[in-house]
User: Fold these one by one.
Assistant:
Number 1:
Amino acid sequence: MEKLLEVSSLTAGYGDGPAILDGAHLSVEPGKIHCIIGPNGAGKSTLLKAICGMLKIRKGDVKFKGQSLKGLRPDQVLRKGICFVPQERALFPKMTVRENLRMGGFSLADKSGLEKRIDEIEERFPILRERRDQHAGTMSGGQQQTLAMARTLIIKPDIVMLDEPSLGLAPKIVAEMFDIMRLMAGEGITILLVEQNALTGLKNADWGVVLDLGRTLFEGPADEVLSDPRIQELYLGGKKAA
Amino acid sequence: MGEIIQIVILGLALGGVYALMGSGLSLVFGVMRIVNLAHPSLIMGGAYVAYWGFKLYGVDPLIMLPVAVVILAATAVILYKLVFEREARSAKYSEMTVLLTFALAMVVEGALGTAFTNTQRVTSPDYATDAFFIGDVFIPKGQLYAGMVSLAIIGALALFLKYSRFGYAIRATTQNREAAELLGVNVNLVGLVSFAIGIGLAGAAGSLVSFVFSFYPSKHWEWIAILMSLVVLGGMGSILGTVLASLILSVIAAFVGTYFGATWSTLTFFVALFVVLMVRPQGLFGEKPELA
């Protein structure tokens, strides 16, 4: 199968600082949920930021549909169809829910279908219709995360990247978030998420990627990664994590 | 009763002008994180543009207002490119801008003094010394016009921010710069344009001030503390908060001025600042500081 996104021997870091990622690789297949796991400081978030253009790619390459994303700005990567939802504060807290959804379509050159598209999304997520005139910052954590994910759908992206969507949410709500991801994947949207909680992430994903010290240790089908003895080693001592 | 209505009206008219002065400051802080101590000196610049048009060509300050907006907005673009852009990546950007704009205020003051001398000036269109009378209540036309034009400009700004595409981009950048950038907003352009709008508003305020107060190049020092207290009271970066704080406090200051003497009226702003910082440090409409 052709790879939708291919990251090869990627090196990246913040400003002039040390390389956080050093030799990370990853390949992403259409319509699947991919989960990146690894200990603190492994470079999971950094990897997503490098793909979306927030960080400069120092070495290696990121290819999307065969084209390099190297040197592109976040808005250019977005227009190619890759949407990134950063950790925790992805919303505009003092804008209404409806205005937040409109911001989701900011990059669209043709705004004619935008309001209709927002209506469709509100139909799928009734809570967003109910709260449409409420400031996003006044909603619960789960509702905010739902809005952040729903907002990506406005531009009908190919890939949605989520940085710890379960952070600070109750287990029941986390399950709901994964239901939404499953739904999105069912529509052909590829999900690439970073999870602190490896168990939860891998149980809900199709593909697992294990990152440590800025490089990819191994990747494979999520259930295989989950039962791999190296995971035990990584998380339960043995090998010293960063 | 007549006296109370009188004081309220005078307070509101002056409050409208303060609101316009403060909203430019608030916008620039909200979007750019620039604490612009030079804002009042640029207001003085706007006042001198109006004075120049009035004295030399007999043009009404209200007609000079758009000219002052354009000149000051253009100045802002040059200033931004020259002074602020190179520091934009600094980790201590806001702190740095305090020093930068303090120096800038002195440069502007010096330039205005050189060009126009340090003499007190005022533009004197007919309405500046005229008044309406409704029963016992007298409404000076100059202050009334200045207050009304200010509120109209702020209203237009609010509509622009609420409904235009660029307004969405400005609000989004103010609230969450990173997320705005990720959704395709060119945050650098938004910053530059907001700065130009904010300083353009200083130009507008300056032309209105030119017939309400007499002015001279170093007058801006009298305003910076009041404007800063209004912006902090409203909640840093909240224009609505700044406008409400201006209107409410100017009315209170007018009462204080009437019953305790004009010397004490300025004190109103600082007492209010102390009280608000004690009970609600984020200001009326500001966000709670993050516990990090």
Note: The interface with chain B takes residues 52, 54, 74-75, 78-79, 83-84, 86, 89-95, 99, 102-104, 106-107 of chain A (CB under 8 Å).
Number 2:
Amino acid sequence: MKRLAYFPGCAMKDQARPDEAGTLHALALLGYEIAEIPRWNCCGTVYSLAQDDLMRHVGPVRNLLRVQGMGEKRVLALCAMCYGTLARSARFVQEPERLARINAFLDTEEDFRGGIGVVHLLTLLRDEVGYEKLPSHVKQSLNGLKVATYYGCMLLRPREFAVDDPDRPEVMERVLEALGAVPVPFPERTECCGAYLTVGRKDIVEERVGRILRSARGGGADLVVTTCPLCQFNLTERRPPEAPPLPVLYLGQVLGWAFGADEPTIAALLVGQPTPGEPVSSGGAR
Amino acid sequence: MNEVTVFIMGKGYRVPAGLTIMKAMEYAGYRLTRGCGCRGGYCGACATVYRLKGDYRLYADLACQTPVQDGMYIAQLPFTPAERPPYALQDLAPEGQTLLALFPELARCVACNTCTKACPQKLEVMDAVQAALRGDIRQVAELTFDCVSCGLCTMRCPAEISHHHVWQLARRLNGAYLTPRAKHVQERVQEIAARKFAVELDAFMSMDRDVLVAAYKAREIEA
Amino acid sequence: MGTYPKEMQESIERVEATRPARLAAKPGRLTLAEQETLLKGFHPDYRPEGKRKLRVGASWGDPVPHELADLLEAYPLLDPSAVDVTKPDQDVDVLVIGGGGAGTVAAIWAHLSGVPAERILIATKLRHGDSNSIMAQGGIQAADKPHDSPAIHYLDVLGGGHFTNDPTLVRALVEDAPEIIRWHEDLGVMYDKAPDGTMSTIHGGGTSRKRMHSAKDYTGLEILRVLRDEARSRGIPVLEFSPAVELLTDNQGQVVGAVLWNLETGEYTVVRAKATVLATGGWGRLHIQGFPTTNHYGATADGLVLAYRAGAKLRDLDAVQYHPTGAAYPDQLVGLLITEKVRGMDAQPLNRRGELFVHPLEPRDVESAAFIRECASPEKGGRGLGVTTPTGMVGVWLDTPMVDMIHGKGTFQRALSSIHRMYVRFDIDPTKEPILVYPTLHYQNGGVVIDEHGWTGIAGLYAAGEVEGGVHGKNRLMGNSLLDYNVFGRRAGIAAAGWAKNAAPGSPTLSHVERYVGELKSAGVPPTRKAPLLLPEYRGERALARMVDLL
């Protein structure tokens, strides 16, 4: 078993629970001992990580400090937003002067020493597990299910933290192929869903979500896959009435199902039945 | 007598060593109205901040529980303005979003941990804010059970959260909805309504003292 | 940790030496006759020099402690001729005086009984919630387990009170108890429970069934903050730092409100009310017979003074409750409450030699008397086996490490977190070392006479909580005070709301005060004494000696 520190983020304990459940199921089979970091706090995403604004990095750095406290060198995130936030702060404090300043502010018993790596589920599957290893673990094939791989922004922007080539990403497609699904052409896959505008400008979000869902349906998709709880929320809760009502699942749910975990939406899709209601409970945006 | 110098709102007084901040203020001649309640660490009325000579930190504690130190600069919080949105418990559901909907400022937490450092009860205050943020009501209730609502975290919070009101709601939601009811209590209430014990109580009430004393002496004591 | 001084440390070694044998044995209880001998010999109430008979008022001739007599036989703080009470500043249906447990419950139930929130007013001396209610640690009694019954509870209450209680009030107390617990569950009080919802209950001193419900050792805090939050949800107005300094009466002798005094600005406010609920709490801060107290800062018997002037009868005020276990070391903690729950969880009281000298859970007065006998010198008839601290306090050990030894490691810190926190601040770990205790002034057993609806017998005036008497007779059992304020707060709130519906209050006056002043003069009471006390005097003598009033 390979030990891996894990930062869940708020959504994984609330509306994105199925993502976590599926991922944990799959990673256990892939030989990972997942250790949730103790006393983690919000990744810090509720504030924009404006350049050099120290205060905004306190939250994410505190999580990295907890990873250090566990004696680990890197931490896994599932949520695209958490991944981006943690990765950016990890980079921010690489500069010794900033590290010293943030330590002075944190004023904790143990200083943060830096050097904690942040990995996303997708990069873990690509770089460490390897696509080629995935099929041997598949217990129930996705059997040609047509999936639209929705990256949104946070996995690919800003460029320094992108999990893949921001212009031509393929990591999600390759993972899903290895599980037996068929990625469909999906031109809008890296377009922004509207993100936090969902609070004040629903109209903008609805317009974008409609465009994204039509693009997915245009390619023939049965299903949209994402790694971001905010995207998931917007694609389901802000869908304009005329847009196609595609189910939107987390990568972890799809991965978990392929590895033998229960997932009613996929089961229904594979036998051509209507999907059971809302795919996941959606409480609201944070 | 062994004395120390303390500065009460900037003015120096010699007071006996070993007194609590509260007793030192009284010794110096203050008649407390604000800043003094139960005098035993339960009511949270005596929230106090202080600095020590040569130390940049602003400490926070309860005046009734903290001994004075030489060179201490002391100020009490007379009152903590805090926003409590109107709600009725019976209209709320114990769901993840309930706390955040009523207290949206929770989302302004930047995890600076100042609240935790300010807590005289040594609670993990920031962890409770974070639990509230992700809707874990039970966790909030447990982490904040020992809160005395002194307001020190609230006064120091850069996100301007009114902590003790959030905790209060979380604990009530937890107690009312996330904890099973005691069946035996409901049954006993029904039995009393059906006057099940009335005859026995009537008898006790009309008994002569001697008979009553004998009954008391003879009562069985649960091991 | 070993922070105790050397002499105390030596005694602790004896405590440790006797512990294995004590853990194996079951302590015996005293007979009623033995209890009586102890009480007569050593309980402070049995010292005749501590009391005198009242020379004025409705309870003329009744003995009460000097400290209270001095306040009852005292002139008004507020000169009746200096204020105009004929034009009320505020008119309400129900005025609740006191913002502790009883007052908050009374206000909520007045509201539930149909009085609009804006027609209710809670006036309180300090903050809403500052009270003895919030400090209660151990628990609340209610006979709601299958092998228990209100009748058994009734017998325990009466026996604990030495059969001096008012049976009608006791019956109300025990029959309402389960309903109160159920109401608290509705409101969201986090009681200690098993995973299936069954209440965790333990013994208290003098109980024959395990019926003490608790919320860790913050039971009083947990219940009161929930009630306060509920009152806030209902929008009931609260006036803080505004003690009542006199009741108002009309020409029929009905109580029609009160004069409040703003502690901060010195202004008075006249509140006319159709019904008034007195919920002012107890008297601990009178420091009867010089004892330290567990009580909150405002426990100065104001309600007794106000009600007595208006003609209310008092009862059982010759009986003072000393809680057996007040902290006796370190100095900063002296007098603070160590909940009976600690003994309920099997910590034993021990003398200097580490010997168990009394069953840990005798009724409070008996237990206190036993502690005093153990500490008193042989010349005073005592055993002289107490432990003396460096500052000259004497106390007995409470063997707190037994809690974890019997109930498992971590129990103390979980179930008694406030006590744990209190001692750890002073570098004493109660899970490893015993703590030193001595009786401390805890509760006003008696008070204003009421009926089962909280009515004082004076039209328009109700009383609830520690200020009233009769429920506990001459000795209250643990866990019955939280119950008392809930039961009688509720009853008084409902009764006050009912009265207010048809009341016809006349013009407010202070004529009863003027009449009382006349009585004081004819009784030859010196004009120097003023009451109510409002706040105890704790200012340093050096500062007081040089204080002049200029502005």
Note: The longest helix of chain B spans residues 163-178.
Number 3:
Amino acid sequence: MPVQLTRRTILTLVGAGAVSLATPLAAQDTALRLAFIPQENPEKLLGDIEAITGWLASEIGVPVEGFVTIDHAAAVEALRSGDADISFMGALPFVLAEAEIGAVPLLSEVYRDAPNYTGRIFVRRDSGIGALADLRGRDIAFADPISESGYLYPLAEFVEAGLVKGPGAAEEFFGRVFFAGGYQQAMQAMAEGLVDAAGASQYADLLLTPQQQAEVTWIAESAPIPSHLVIARPGLDAALRDRFVDAMLRLNEPEHRNKLRYLYGPDGYVRADGAAYDGVRDMARRYGLLE
Amino acid sequence: MVQSFLRVLLATLASVLVLSGPVPATPAKEAPWLPDAAAYRLTLFLGNLAPLPWDDIKTAWTEPYRGSEFSVGALAWLDRESEIEPAGLLNAMMREDRQAVFAEATRLIALRIEEELDRALAAEESAMAQQAVRTARELYRAFEDGIAAADPEAARRIGLAWLELNSSTGFSGVLGAGSTSADRKTMEAARTVISSYLAENYLLDSFAPRRALSALPETAVLSGRAFEVPPSLPPGSDIFDQDPLPLLVLNFEEQGIDETDLPLVAFGDMLFDSAQIFGSPARDLGITCSTCHNRSDINQRLFVPGASHQPGAIDVDGAFFNPIFNDRRDDPLDIPSLRGLRFTGPYGRDGRFASLRDFTRNVIVNEFGGDEPTPFMLDALVAYMLEFDFLPNSMLTTDGRLTDAAPEVARRGEEIFNQPFAGLGDRSCASCHVPDANFLDRQAHDIGSVAPAYEGARAGALDTPTLLGTAYTAPYFHDGSLPTLAAVVDWFDETKALGLTEEDRASLTAYLETVGAADEPYEAFDTENTAFRLAFAELTTFASTLDTLLPRRDAEHILLLTDTVAADLSADASTMSNLAARPEVYALAERLAAVGAAVRADDWAAAEASWTAFKSEAAAIEERAF
């Protein structure tokens, strides 16, 4: 069962500095607590959580609870404090959580047959912008300052091209740099002409209308970014962790695939390969996010 | 907050934007609306209908909109999320005062935006500030199309203000890494841009009387200038294709004849999928014949608030599509299947049109406000629709008897079906649903399924519908009031005192389900044989009629084709699973648009050249078109 949180409750809890919800569990190996990162509509996520945790509980044989945190930071805090055993997580927050609290990667998400994706620089086709250098003095919208595909990797393309000196120097090259709050907002700002370019996931143009999709193109693509994953707090009972992973991998089987829609809708999961995130660790160091 | 790659995937499934502006027949999925913003948009839409559906407006505020991801309605949502009291709105709705409802609802949304902006400015945590900005931005969406239509410069200014605001809230990072603090000064400046516009246009004590309700800003209305807000459907609308997609059975195709060798039929096929033949708003919303009669069958999910009483039903002579044809009667009809159309005349639920051609013209001109179609267009549409065949059913002979493949229980039902009943005037079910006449008799009968509209009315006779293919066309009856074939059997048993036993009813139901069954009712797709491949094949087939039209220098019909197919091809590319091939499809669409542009310029040589290039490029990318 999900913990029922209103938007304000979530904010209050996070504002208090921790996510401490519901009744503490009697023993680690007899229950699992899952932290979910919110979407546009946390209320829908609560319904999804109820469906997936119910199924996981029946598969694993222990009660499974899920709750929504306000963001990745709060989910990591929950792992650190032990309020969550397992969390869904982006690649960058994962490497930060790994370094800081020893978080353990369990599963990587698969989309379109790959456990990775890219970031791209999108522009309007009628903009006359054909290369990264054309964006000198022009405005760009990114998703978020610690988004892999929505900032770090796309910006790295400008660094590679010798246009931006390094992290923190973007303003010297561009006119304005905005953080729109998400892929969709960044893409929409570009498509509507509020900015000249958007840095976002390779699939972000699918968030535009069909007409807008035909009006935009991309001029640069980043190196592959390992996909989002499911991570565990250190110290989680190994046997319980294995049972969880085995259950999650059963979601790849045809009879269970329909449940993937309760989990942000990937095509499936594979066991996480920690080494696959070396590139993200390097990127985090370049941006000064990781020592 | 780090944006989740997965969120994109999810959002791709249920995403994006106000449906507005000229669109081809590929509608854009919408991002979910916040409950209060949704109720406001529904109020604007329903408030323009005549007679005004007050119950629907009240429902718009008290219940979640159809398909909402939120479990509560707007009022409960406000109670939970806001300090604002909706008393004024409730009072206006109780008085059924349209202008007051508009004013109160508009103020309410403006106040909600202000409330969230206050929260954003007051937030100590950047995550909270961002959440509030996001909510405010989603509420602003309720006004956005009105501002864009009337004041593009203001729309741009405010759009940049939202970007500024979001960028300056600060970011919490993860475990301290990547965190930035809020830039209060920039936040306040951006907020001022938004709030001052709201104060001037939406947060007003009184509003000028509105002939048509819209999100147009007050200053635009007071200016006296005419502004056109692009038509849009309100939250809860559903004009998407069915899933699974019904199988289309075309007589010529089953005989191995290629549609590209039947240019009149192919042009009619194109018109059936063209919103260009209708008037606004249907044309602007991308509504076509196939929106309702999907793949010659029915679209069971179609729903337009105020025009549909349930999914799969629509009132085509209401206020929305063509006000001049508004019969001011709330009488939505369950969409009928067009399978076997050449055997099912007369047309219309009450059989009021003997001619399919007359019926089709009525749909185009009266129901959907289109221009008078040319004789060629009507000929083409009729030629195409007459190719619609019933679904093959190996449990039924061509003269309507059960084959050995039919289940035994259905045979017992067949006997009952052919048995005369006193309650049916000593006739049987088969008297009207004649098995060797495709289970219909081409007559209208009053079976008592229509409530009299007035005392003494003799207006309840309806055309006998076929039973073929009906296993997939629930619900049943003209108003879709019976959910299953078993319910239909029960209705006849009860209202006609047939005296059937439980076993009889089960047998008769089994018979109806057998008669209504099909060997393959739906299209079968796989990873490469995708819905887009099907669309690609259709659209390139439509285009093939240029081989006939270009030599005839038939500019009018060429432009109808290129405007329809180029836009559809481009829009359909958004559904491709082979994303890498999308640019090629966009380029192909531009080739076809270039044919149209050349014809408009009376440059027939250029038109021919673009058409030749289209054909060769279409053939080259066919394998990748999935």
Note: Chain A has two domains: 7-114+226-286, 119-223.
